Amino acid sequence: MSTSRPRPDAATRSTSNRGPAAADENRRALIAAAREIYSEDGPDAPFNAVAKRAGVGQGTLYRHFPDRLALAAAVFDENIAELEDAMREGGTIAVLFERVIDQASVSTAFIRLLSEQQNDQRARDIAARFEALLDRLRQEDQAAGRIGIHVEQLDVEIAVSMLAHELAFTPPERKPVVADRARRLFALAFAPR
C-alpha cells in the first residue's frame, strides 16, 4: 500500500499558494502574461485576465501591481534593462532604433498607458533612465563619427518617442513600412555634415 499523495495537475500547481518563495516567479509570470494579453487585446483588456493567464490569483496580481500603470512600468523596466544590456558594448543609436522598433511593435498597449500618465512618478523614472541611455549612446556615436555633432539629446529623445508612438498607433500590417521610413528619415537627419 502506497502512502504517497497524488501529484496535483498543472492547473492546481499553478494556482496553489507557494508563499513568498514564489514571489519572483509570480512577478515574471504576470509580466509575461501582461505582454501577451495587452498585445492581443490592447490597453482596455481586463486587468484580471493577466492573473488568469499567469496562473495566479487576483490577490497576487494586485500585490505585485496595484494598477495598470504599475504593470506597464514593470514591462518598460524590463524593456529598458534589455536595451541597457544590448547597448553595453557596440551599442549605437541605429541599433537602439531597431530594438525600439521590435519592442514598440509588441508593447503598443503599454506605450499608450504610459503616455497617458506622463506626470506619474513611475513614468518619469522610466523616462529618466531611458534618457540617460540615449544620451550615452549619442555621445558615443558622435565621438565615433557615426552621427553629426549637430545632434542634441532632445533630437534623439524626440526621434525615439516619435518612432515608438507612431508604431504604437499603426496597424500591424503597416508597421514594417513605417519603421523603414523612420529609419531613412533619422539616418538623414543624424548623418554627419
Structure characterization notes:
Residues 1-10 have a biased composition (Basic and acidic residues). This protein is an all-alpha fold and 193 residues long. It has helices at 10-15, 23-41, 47-54, 58-64, 68-86, 93-106, 108-116, 121-143, 153-168, 175-190. Helix 5 packs across helix 7 (108-116). The chain is elongated and about 60 Å long.
Q: What's the CATH topology label of the largest domain?
A: Tetracycline Repressor, domain 2
- Provide the number of structural domains: 2
Radius of gyration: 20 Å
Order of helices and strands: HHHHHHHHHH
Fraction of residues in β-strands: under 5%
**Uncertain segments:** 1-15
CATH top level assignment of the largest domain: Mainly Alpha
| Biggest sheet details | none
DSSP strand tally:
0
